[in-house]
């Protein structure tokens, strides 16, 4: 499950030579990290509206079970979220011109079928600057194995 | 895990369900798929130099829940101990967004350990970015498919 949330995250920003640097890179990194927060909030609140605007129509997600999900399926997952708490951990942002790669881990607590669960997962998301805004075009989530 | 052994890697040359999306950019998909094959092939031959050319310096690689840098990836490949191993690339789809391409696909892995085969299927997402005319791998990760 792809759930982060509102707690402060540490964002490390890397930029490739010849691409966005300095304040601009920092601003872009802050924006995509902020959107990761919104994404997380969506899961906690079970509200897919905000996420709908952040995902490209061709968005694809591979979840921690190795399943490929479309945007519509991810939004349906948000509605059905069972997370009660998400503990985010440091994220790193790498900018490559109009493309941003965000990676990090998060720990999710929730209740499913009456039983509590805890998941620790790592993700890598791809964001694209398109029509004046950052949108996500791909995401991969996998268990950390902890 | 795509970075393990290099003694026996069989890459299925025929890709199924290859799709190029986004109008007018269909010619990019074949180029990206050639690079995906070059990656597998580079591993099979322990060709660090070849992979060095297609991996971006800021590559983010996720395998078995761990993050690996380009340097770590190449070092591990260099030090890898040969062991019987087989990877078959399966359905692969390429989506292009201008100078960015997303590849989603699956591969089967059959490793031999203590005389026993251990088949596993992974689904992966790779991100390629065109930099100065060359497509570079900037992010890649795979997730084990649940049975």
Q: Tell me the series of helices and strands of chain A, N- to C-terminal.
A: EHHEEHEEEE
Largest interface, with counts of residues having CB < 8 Å to the other chain, equals: A-B, 38 and 36 residues
Number of helices of chain A: 3
Assembly form of the protein = heterodimer
**Overall mean pLDDT score of chain B?**
80
CATH class of chain A: Alpha Beta
Q: Could you walk me through the main structural features you see in this protein, from its secondary elements to its overall organization?
A:
The complex is a heterodimer of chains A (146) and B (147). Chain A has 146 residues and is an alpha/beta fold. Helices cover 27% and strands 49% of the residues of chain A. The longest helix of chain A is centred in the N-terminal third of the chain and has 24 residues, at 22-45. Chain B has one domain (20-144): Nuclear Transport Factor 2, Chain: A (Roll), CATH 3.10.450.50. Chain B has 3 helices and 7 strands. Chain B has a 7-stranded mixed sheet with strand order 1-4-5-6-7-2-3. The model of chain B is unreliable at 3-24 (pLDDT under 50). Chain A binds chain B through residues 14, 16-18, 56, 58, 60, 62-68, 92, 94, 96-99, 101, 103, 121-122, 124, 126, 128, 130, 137-146, and chain B through 21-22, 56-58, 60, 62, 64-67, 95, 97-100, 102, 104, 121-125, 127, 129, 131-132, 138-146.
């Amino acid at each position: 499950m792809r759930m982060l949330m509102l707690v402060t995250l540490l964002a490390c920003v890397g930029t490739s030579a010849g691409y966005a640097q300095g304040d601009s890179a920092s601003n872009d990194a802050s924006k995509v990290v902020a959107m990761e927060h919104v994404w997380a909030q969506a899961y906690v609140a079970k509200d897919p509206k905000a996420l709908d605007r952040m995902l490209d129509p061709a968005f694809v997600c591979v979840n921690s079970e190795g399943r490929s999900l479309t945007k519509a399926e991810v939004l349906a997952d948000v509605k059905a979220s069972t997370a009660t708490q998400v503990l985010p951990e440091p994220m790193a942002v790498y900018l490559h011109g109009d493309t941003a790669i965000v990676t990090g881990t998060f720990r999710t607590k929730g209740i499913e079928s009456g039983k509590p669960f805890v998941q620790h997962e790592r993700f890598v998301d791809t964001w694209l600057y398109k029509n004046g805004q950052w949108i996500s075009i791909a995401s991969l989530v996998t268990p950390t194995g902890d | 895990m795509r970075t393990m052994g290099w003694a026996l890697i069989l890459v299925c040359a025929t890709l199924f369900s290859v799709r190029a999306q986004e109008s007018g950019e269909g010619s990019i998909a074949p180029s990206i798929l050639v690079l995906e094959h070059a990656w597998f092939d580079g591993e099979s031959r322990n060709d660090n130099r070849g992979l060095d050319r297609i991996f971006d310096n800021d590559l983010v690689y996720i395998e078995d829940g761990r993050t690996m840098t380009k340097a770590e990836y190449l070092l591990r490949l260099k030090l890898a101990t040969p062991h019987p191993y087989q990877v078959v690339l399966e359905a692969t789809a390429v989506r292009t967004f201008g100078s960015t391409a997303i590849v989603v696909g699956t591969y089967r892995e059959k490793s031999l350990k203590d005389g026993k085969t251990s088949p596993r299927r992974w689904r992966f997402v790779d991100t390629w970015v065109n930099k100065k005319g060359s497509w570079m791998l900037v992010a890649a990760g795979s997730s084990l498919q649940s049975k």
